[in-house]
Amino acid sequence: MGIGVLVAASIVIFTYIAILLGQVFDVGQNIVNSSGLQKDDISLIFKIIAATYVIEFARGICVDAGELGLAQKIEMCGRIYLIMLVLPTCITLISTITSFVG
To answer: DSSP readout, 21-44?
Structure first.
């Protein structure tokens, strides 16, 4: 019964956080519209922030349930996912730097 209560509370908290993140995205959209920043760059930042919270939330649930091995795998997969999100930006940055240098 304890695990069921934990899972139910986690779902309620996650739903509340998702609603709050929706509001954060709306504010971010207003910032993008008023600042003239690239929409893709801001979108990437928000994806990274959201993914980080989801990964940490899932890892925390696994740790609370006593599944430390699964928590470590979720954390590792999350890190790989974050690297894959940032990789195109890093490639663009490196090519820009090399075009200035060479």
So the answer is: HHHHHHHHHHHHHHH---HHHHHH
